[in-house]
Description:
Strand content of chain A: 5-15%
Shape of chain A: elongated
Order of helices and strands of chain A: EHEHEHEHHEHEEHEHEHHHHHH
Number of strands of chain A: 9
Distance between the termini of chain A: 55 Å
Radius of gyration of chain A: 21 Å
Number of helices of chain A: 14
Oligomer: homotetramer
Amino acid sequence: MRIGFVGAGAMGVGMIGNLIKAGHEVTVWNRGTGPRAALKSAGAVVADSPLECAAQDIVINMLADDAAVAEVTLDPAFLAAMPAAGLHLSMATISVALAERLGEACATGGRAYVSAPVFGRPPAAAAAQLFVVAAGARDAVARCQPLFDVMGQRTFVVGERAPLANVVKLAGNFMLAAMIETLGEAFALTRKHGIDPQQFLDLLTSTLFTAPVYKTYGGLIASDQYEPAGFKLNLGLKDVRLAQAAADAAMVPMPFAGVLHDRYMTAIAQGHGHLDWAGIARLAAEAAGLHPLADGDPG
Amino acid sequence: MRIGFVGAGAMGVGMIGNLIKAGHEVTVWNRGTGPRAALKSAGAVVADSPLECAAQDIVINMLADDAAVAEVTLDPAFLAAMPAAGLHLSMATISVALAERLGEACATGGRAYVSAPVFGRPPAAAAAQLFVVAAGARDAVARCQPLFDVMGQRTFVVGERAPLANVVKLAGNFMLAAMIETLGEAFALTRKHGIDPQQFLDLLTSTLFTAPVYKTYGGLIASDQYEPAGFKLNLGLKDVRLAQAAADAAMVPMPFAGVLHDRYMTAIAQGHGHLDWAGIARLAAEAAGLHPLADGDPG
Amino acid sequence: MRIGFVGAGAMGVGMIGNLIKAGHEVTVWNRGTGPRAALKSAGAVVADSPLECAAQDIVINMLADDAAVAEVTLDPAFLAAMPAAGLHLSMATISVALAERLGEACATGGRAYVSAPVFGRPPAAAAAQLFVVAAGARDAVARCQPLFDVMGQRTFVVGERAPLANVVKLAGNFMLAAMIETLGEAFALTRKHGIDPQQFLDLLTSTLFTAPVYKTYGGLIASDQYEPAGFKLNLGLKDVRLAQAAADAAMVPMPFAGVLHDRYMTAIAQGHGHLDWAGIARLAAEAAGLHPLADGDPG
Amino acid sequence: MRIGFVGAGAMGVGMIGNLIKAGHEVTVWNRGTGPRAALKSAGAVVADSPLECAAQDIVINMLADDAAVAEVTLDPAFLAAMPAAGLHLSMATISVALAERLGEACATGGRAYVSAPVFGRPPAAAAAQLFVVAAGARDAVARCQPLFDVMGQRTFVVGERAPLANVVKLAGNFMLAAMIETLGEAFALTRKHGIDPQQFLDLLTSTLFTAPVYKTYGGLIASDQYEPAGFKLNLGLKDVRLAQAAADAAMVPMPFAGVLHDRYMTAIAQGHGHLDWAGIARLAAEAAGLHPLADGDPG
């Protein structure tokens, strides 16, 4: 299939590679000039404008945020460049409200729209191990399925209205953030009583909390090391706000989300937006009067 | 070894069975008369008074709560009945403050004290699959280790001051309660947007949240079924309060614990204390204006 | 002075009356046809279009919310209709972000802009007893001062950047909402212990909390009567959201605002958006398992 | 009347002075030796033991906290020293649970018990301007009324069960703490946007929030000056905890109280327990990334 792909960031590069490996013809546009050479040598056509991507059978966006997605894909020229049977497949983490607008914009011109955000980090994207959460008209999702199959390990179709996929993605990210805060409070409690953080981590992840995410985030918190960031605090706030916006629109009070919102705002207002988003755990420790762990300090 | 065991509830019965199978001589006391026959036929000596249990080499308590543990094991007669080399092994879920008092009471009389609460439900107790969290003087813990080995699948020794084991147990229970609330809010958000709860559950537990506890509690919430209770809401409040008391004593602010406290209080004040403690998820749904799911209703 | 006035609601009607009494020539536009006759008989010129209002020396808006203000006053035709020395005086409760856009829109065309929201209810508007919170360029505010003098009892100029006045107005409304929640929790606590609500109210307002707002809102809560609404719950949520948006933009975590947000959402999701915004106090009572007070029931 | 008075702290000294002025014979005991000379010269009999105070017609306690009140007044010798028609009048800020125990202890010996905590600071105590909140058996309260009349400006009798007065006192203190947090968040919001704190304070206290408590606490926050403390943060935490305990006992969820609890814990854990309890406002400012105001700095 001829695929357009806008947004060749850390995630996009891996996804593009897998599409090419599967025999698809991929035309890529990225705002910066960064990965052009790498993309070319991987077999991608590098476009000078997103309109070239829009002109393909399916155009995928994996852009950074609402602002970038709206600017590029709601541009009337972008919509006009899409073929009559075109399909916009939005895989970025965006708001429910924007997904609605994207769907309407495509529908107006008779094009199809599918939301399919993913769970997984860059290594999972490179290894075609993403989890894809898709929603949209049945036939539109079916057209995308072969692409999901080569980019991810499993696809979950959660409904026929595209924004539902975004709701699920944001709910999942909220759950991760809540898990981080939960760990932060539990580590503050045990550490202040004198429990060794590594030992507590080992216990948690060997007993009740065996999911790998506990190991990943618990490990950052136990060692009190939040740099380099796998996913930045700034983006954590963005995601919490998107989840709250989805909750607000549907009138769903979420007290944990309110606590998370304050944690991310505090960390960023105090200058820590560049840390990994697990760094809000340091706020729980500081509130308890604990000091940052020095390297190698057992507690 | 000659073991005394006070508190033959749903957990205790399984633990006693495993001690007997391993060849220990177990003298059991229980407040009610319930499992006497079963205990006898399993090979236990059924005592008429906790003092007979106190007189054994090691006396284990697996009583219901702080009040029961204090009444039975801080009774001067109980302490006096312990042999000079006696050891009190408290495996119940009790407060950090009570664990301190138990330790002091034993120390005053020259006896040893070990805290070793467990993670696991009655079936795990019966199957010797408990996780044991132990703390106390090194030699005292070592004396208990053979008992841990036959009651549990793994022991974590978290320190030489006995109450540390209780801190860890309470932190773990806090984490479970926070996971429940997190699920409750995420299900309310997705369900109000029209996502099928079972599908959302399948997605969560197949991707990021693969720990069995997510399957267990997520299953209750997705089906909106909280009876019969595996662990009652009333006890959930008790455990949240114990975690908060441990946090208060060490001056550790825990905002999620505050939210949980209000959830459990609300559910109980509104007459739902008999439901499973995952039932606080219904409060998140109700606050969003959702109605209870009828049986078989997909959402 | 020749004044345009868009938005003749319950507040606007009183303000218009006072402007006319002071000898100003007032041209009024309102979306509905409601108060036309009354406005005419009071001496106002009733316009068929907001553009007629825009054409006056100063055009005041007292519209309902952000959407209405943006639709009417950001219309390019409205801006074009303003005289070269025109001034837009926005007295509605709007977002800080919209106030910024209004200021920019006026500045682009060389017109002046002043934000001057007010504290006070319709009777205070009618009695020229409003408190005016004004901000904007010094000379622009000075031009408006004679109007403030006839509409209010006192004007507070809080800065030279217009949106500052909106920040202060939203902070004030946040404080009122927080006072309501505080009262709700305190009444729930005392009522559940058996204290008579009217007696508790009398005590509060005779001792520490003598400000009239405590009497007003405390009275509603003590009698558990929230209809007819003086200010609706729906609007309360709107105001809390505006305060949170102002806080978000400046990165100011406000945990009480988060609690309020959940309270208003819950009340509205459960179908109570038409009650007075003090009605969130009923949520505190219900969470404690208390039932609504029947009329005349002392508690 | 012959009055015993235990607890001659900053509050007690003023109250004792007013009792003496009204012609009562007052026997005083205080743990320290501090105000002995002053008390004597004021006309008090200074006792060497609280038992001498207990032996009077009415014994008033104005001790510091639950621990002190329990130690002194639940001492069997104290109870035995009370005359057959004795009355214990507890005016300290204590827990509802302790008030119940004090009442039971007196009832057991046939003595009367009245709870009558007060609102007001030391200057109000000295000026006989306290507000007295009283509860207890009708005739017992009547016996105390002449004393209330000379110590306070007004008495509120809130019920016939003594602990009700303590509930009301704790609810009032909760409301003060909530007002402080509300001010803290509102000041953080406005200050970060660039509003001058003194100007914001002037506006608040001239318009909606005219109660003197807003002037007092708002003044501390606007100037960011929390030393010397009028009422220490440490005691603020104590009072919030007492309110929460009263709420817990009656199953009344109070989310604002939860936030306050975390604020006071944080401030104390970070070493600020000696500041005035309005100092939690600094946490709201710090979370927004604001720095303490230097003296004379307008914001």
